[in-house]
Known about the structure:
heterodimer; A: alpha+beta; Arp2/3 complex 21 kDa subunit ARPC3; Heat Shock Protein 90; five-stranded mixed beta sheet; 9 strands; B: alpha/beta; Rossmann fold; five-stranded parallel beta sheet; 5 helices
Amino acid sequence: MDSHPASSAGAAPGLTHPGWRFGARTTWAAPALLVAVGYYFAARVGFAFTLQPYPISTLWPPNALLLAALLLAPTRAWWWLLAAVLPAHLLVELQSGVPVAMVLGWYVSNCSEALIGAGLARAFVPWPLRLDSLRSAGIFLFCGALAGPVVSSFLDAALVSLVGFGERGYWDLVGTRIFSNTLAALTVAPLILTLASIQIPRLRAARTARYAEATALFVGLGVTCMMVFNLPQFDNHTEPALFYAPLPFLVWAALRFGPAGTASAIAVLVVATIFGTVNGLGPFAGSTPQETVREMQLFLTAVAVPMLLLAVVLDERARVELDAREQRLQLTHLSRVAMLGELSGGIAHELNQPLTAILSNAQAALHLVGNKSAHPDILMEILRDIIAADQRAGEVIRRLRTLFKRGETQFQPLDANELIHEVLGIVHGDLVTRSVEVVSELAAALPKIHGDRVELEQVMLNLVVNACDAMGGGVAPEQRRLTVRTRAVEDGAVQISFSDCGPGFTPEQYARLFEPFYTTKPRGLGLGLSISRAIIRTHHGRLWGSSAPGKGASFHIVLPALAANGR
Amino acid sequence: MASIVPYVAIVDDEEPVRKALKRLLRASGLDAESYASGQDFLEAAVLREPDCVLLDLHMPRMSGLQVLRALQAARRALAIIVITAHDAPETREQCLAAGASAFLRKPLEEHELLDTITAALGARTR
Lengths: 567, 126
């Protein structure tokens, strides 16, 4: 056991709880105890992974556990954690009959490894370090998996020489310890760090299919590892291709299960490989232990580092894309709400009409009942009118509520004519108060389109509002006309056009019309058309404008029909 | 000159609104008739001049303001109360300038409506 260099090891469960953080008011007793218990068992694992009869530890996890704990804890808590592992260290090491001076020496070198790794990493990344970006993963690898084990191994070997324990030379000890502890840091610390950042609610919300996929992945990986590294018939060096058998599973983990899944898969591979090797099975069993262990450690390190980095890069990219998507959704929603704000006058008009009918009808009924001149038939008719007016007001609110809501994009089969009907219903008040006459030329029996109702209504609403704005100043009220057309076009697509009789636009204006923040309106944000075009693009359609000078502007949307795009 | 029961004309393109207003005015003891457009009203007013008019502002083809101006051009001084469901301060001034005697916002409060009609009728009979 001479060379079980301090490595780090296994995650204390308390540290891995997502909602759990070291905070100002946290008492350190419980976390420190968990780390100590983890350290003890990690050391037992280290002893178990020792090649018999040669006392060489192939993987020494306690130091990696301590490293991960320090990376997750605020700096002021470090001394608590270091102190807490001393009893665990003494307990586990003294059982193995090592001299007390050596036991204490290893405590110092083990702690120094974790401290060097965590201290260096903290200089670059603020607490807590998460393996969620290429930068933080690189810093972890350099500080925790390289600098910590390398630097502390010189100290460790020096202490061993000083105490005079064992018979191995200084440089032999240094080399053995570096490989062993680097592998442990790569296996154990990422597992703890990534599991610590898992969000339990998201885990609970995951679908059964996802759990099934994870099960398939880990069962497949486990079986493959057993086949390659734990069966005697592959016990030779003649089939190097077998080394690659677990790789597809690791790539699968990186692609689908992020850094946490990849760290877990690496841990499975490492444990299976070492287990086979120390039991004389698999491709690394055979010649002298020193040689095969070194080969095995190099193999595992060479697999773990790129896989871990791949998972982190993919995860980071997915998160960036998700953030961008979220921002797009927010902007789309904000622009929609702003547009509805502009329509508030017209919406008030739409609500006031039925309210007027309801109020006047009810007051009339009161008079009739008060005068005792109410015929039941008349009262029935009044009540029916009240109900109808109430339903109309309810309809206005229903339409608005749909548009105000902020939700995920939901694609469904839609009827373009019905969307236009809805949109004209929303702007009806505005059209009336702005004296805009609407001419609808809607083709009957249009094929259905596939899209998000709210987003497509937003685009149409935007085009209608733009058309009304264009006709606001220069066009006489009796000439303000908005023509809405739908028709089926070639390739099974549906075209929707909005034409106004405003001043139109010049080619120079058109060149900038779809740019964000370009506007010709005094109070416009200039986002409407750029957002509209982005929405239509996500629907695999096209949005463009056309204008004849002095004869108004037209905007056209073409959307693929449901059958045509195969959905 | 007003008949014994004053006659109020209601001009509104919204059928439910004009129906309800007609009911209310009739239940309040007034004679009321309703018209769906400015043209309909102007034609009918030639035959029977109302004592008071409830005139909606926003109507297709001929707006309330255009009706006011047509009456002004024909030098016909009617007691006209403009009613609107749209809250736009600038139109109020335009209507009053075009000869409206009052400007009310929908939904119409019964007492306010009847008081305004009474005031308009009183001003007319003086």
